[in-house]
Amino acid sequence: MNFQINKDTLLNNLIVAQKALSNKTPNPALQGIKLEVLKDHLVITTSNSDIAIKLTVKDASLAVKSEGSVLIPGKYFIEIIRKLDGLKVQLSMAADNMLRIEADRSDITLNMMDLDDYPELQFSEKVKSIKINVRVLKTIIRQTAFATSSIENRPILTGVNFKIDGKKLIAIATDSYRLSQKEIELNESYEALNIIIPGRSLEELIKVLENNNDQVELHFDHSKILFKYNNLLFQSRLLEGNYPETSKLIPTEFATVIKFNKENLSTAIERASLLSSRDGNNAIVKLALRQDNIVEITSNSPEIGKVLEEVYPVDEIVGHPFKIAFSSKYILDALKIFNSSEVSVNFTGEIRPFIIKGEYDENMLQLILPVRTE
Amino acid sequence: MNFQINKDTLLNNLIVAQKALSNKTPNPALQGIKLEVLKDHLVITTSNSDIAIKLTVKDASLAVKSEGSVLIPGKYFIEIIRKLDGLKVQLSMAADNMLRIEADRSDITLNMMDLDDYPELQFSEKVKSIKINVRVLKTIIRQTAFATSSIENRPILTGVNFKIDGKKLIAIATDSYRLSQKEIELNESYEALNIIIPGRSLEELIKVLENNNDQVELHFDHSKILFKYNNLLFQSRLLEGNYPETSKLIPTEFATVIKFNKENLSTAIERASLLSSRDGNNAIVKLALRQDNIVEITSNSPEIGKVLEEVYPVDEIVGHPFKIAFSSKYILDALKIFNSSEVSVNFTGEIRPFIIKGEYDENMLQLILPVRTE
């Protein structure tokens, strides 16, 4: 193997590949980056127990003297390429199983790993596939993945449930304290589908997708999903099991609907959460609709102090005075992902889940379970 | 106590006062901020075991209804003021030993601490004092404090030694592996002085000094130093003991002097330190002057790989080929604080300390001890 390439081109691709590189893995070979150089392109592969990435790099700067494949310690290789001076970098095999890296006045040799230890990865296209605009896919992920569970006691809840029915795609995430649901209309009609994608895989995927109007192809079988996007193949395992049926949890009739300026509501809750009683790590905050139609956000931490915030709703309120308590983190997380500057909070009862919607966040809803106090 | 003040004015002063606020202190009263409101000004005081800060705030926005003093939990108070909406904030005593904080539509009460528990602090001016331009003082601190020791086994080395002799001020810091020395000329002649200021106090001080042409007054007695700067009084304890005599360590005759572009030298050393043998946490890097007058920076980590960097000196070299090894951290730390883009590295021998100087860093020198290898 012996080739030259523009240093920044190589670096930018390595930064994408790094997303599937694991520092701690039971299989040491997965700490390596696989480089395959062919006549007119370079293939970069990384993988860990959740995801695998394959990048095909075709670049005018690529000059191949001899083809070949190597497995290189990933962390060191990326750090070296990042710190090199000069426009181009030359990579070649040196004696004693070393990779030689030359750029500007640097001459670096890096011990290689045994390519035979690297697992055989299949990035094959699957029978079923759909196409989504990359911006739409990013929105779906941004608006749902945050609501997955980070604790592993119910593994299924660490994933986002994607359901397709005809032209409709619904994505749902819940950690059993809050739920996020986003629905979009696809360009074509597809066969019914119901899969669960690990939230962490989606969080990594979103980092490497750009903000353009390209399409992403999603290919899946029963155990894997493959995202095809320009020169990137991004594969994730799927979670096995049945995702809970959440539709019955979502109330459809509401006793009280209050429309807020999103910013006013979140800053009031943020201040209240500074001095609040705690349920574990969560700050508990109370919301009350007063007789005079002003909303009070309150908190009380007997040892430290208390907060009373008045928030004026945007519109006339439909409903009677009531009180509800909730974990401030869940409502702040939810408010953050709305694009709308005004949100409607829909209450059913003092100990019933409430939902948040926004005019400019079509077909997206956030559900939050209240907590009981006293 | 009852007064109103511009919120940002209060916040900006609290951020300065926070530098002397301790989270973990044997005396819980020191987690408090002392506020004293007088007819036309506000005094904010904080202190920990090393430093004490007193700010006198006179501001057109200050409207005092009634004078008084309180001690408030510092962390919570600053977080609340930071998150408030509105231009102004009203602070008043409420029943039950509470401080009431009102701004915009927020009404917050914070349990107060017992003012009687707060230590009596003296910020009195001392018999001896000198004046230094604030930019000059910041340069002295920036160029020396980083070289103090962070381990407490020789407490004296955690401080910076300030010595005044007539119009000359010398500041010295060393952790016994490297030494930094900066000399400046004062505007007036002063009595001889030799004190040791804790490096950490200086690191906090530098954060609250601005970049203008104001003077800082330094007042000292045997145990304390007081910095007077505009509305700020910043006091630090001094370290007791005798600072080691370092002047004999600094070589004055050199076998080889090499002038480098600072950037070229540091990036080469940074790359070499990626793959280097370790002395504890320190990456060991070697420098060699070759027969052809090119400098080689090398490192070798048998398990990972090796680096060879060529650095072309800026000028003709005076001296013979030689080799030296050092900890890359010390030389990178030192290079960072030079304003000059070219630096001269002055070598005496392969196992003798070397010093770095820069044309535009007058009267400043950095000394580094080499390490023995093989």
UniProtKB/TrEMBL annotation, chains A, B:
InterPro entries: DNA_clamp_sf, DNA_polIII_beta, DNA_polIII_beta_C, DNA_polIII_beta_cen, DNA_polIII_beta_N
Gene Ontology CC, one term: DNA polymerase III complex
Span of domain DNA polymerase III beta sliding clamp N-terminal: 1-121
Keyword entries, A-Z: Cytoplasm, DNA replication, DNA-binding, DNA-directed DNA polymerase, Nucleotidyltransferase, Transferase
Gene3D superfamilies for this protein: 3.70.10.10, DNA Polymerase III, subunit A, domain 2
Subcellular location per the Swiss-Prot or TrEMBL entry: Cytoplasm
Chief localization: cytoplasm
Domain DNA polymerase III beta sliding clamp C-terminal: 248-372
Any one GO molecular-function label of the UniProt entry: DNA-directed DNA polymerase activity
GO biological process, any: DNA strand elongation involved in DNA replication
Domain called DNA polymerase III beta sliding clamp central: residue spans: 132-245
Assembly: Forms a ring-shaped head-to-tail homodimer around DNA which binds and tethers DNA polymerases and other proteins to the DNA. The DNA replisome complex has a single clamp-loading complex (3 tau and 1 each of delta, delta', psi and chi subunits) which binds 3 Pol III cores (1 core on the leading strand and 2 on the lagging strand) each with a beta sliding clamp dimer. Additional proteins in the replisome are other copies of gamma, psi and chi, Ssb, DNA helicase and RNA primase.
Function: Confers DNA tethering and processivity to DNA polymerases and other proteins. Acts as a clamp, forming a ring around DNA (a reaction catalyzed by the clamp-loading complex) which diffuses in an ATP-independent manner freely and bidirectionally along dsDNA. Initially characterized for its ability to contact the catalytic subunit of DNA polymerase III (Pol III), a complex, multichain enzyme responsible for most of the replicative synthesis in bacteria; Pol III exhibits 3'-5' exonuclease proofreading activity.
NCBIfam families assigned to the protein according to its UniProt record, in alphabetical order: dnan
Family, per entry: Belongs to the beta sliding clamp family.
Protein name: Beta sliding clamp
Native source organism of the sequence: Candidatus Xianfuyuplasma coldseepsis
Taxonomic path: Bacteria, Bacillati, Mycoplasmatota, Mollicutes, Candidatus Izemoplasmatales
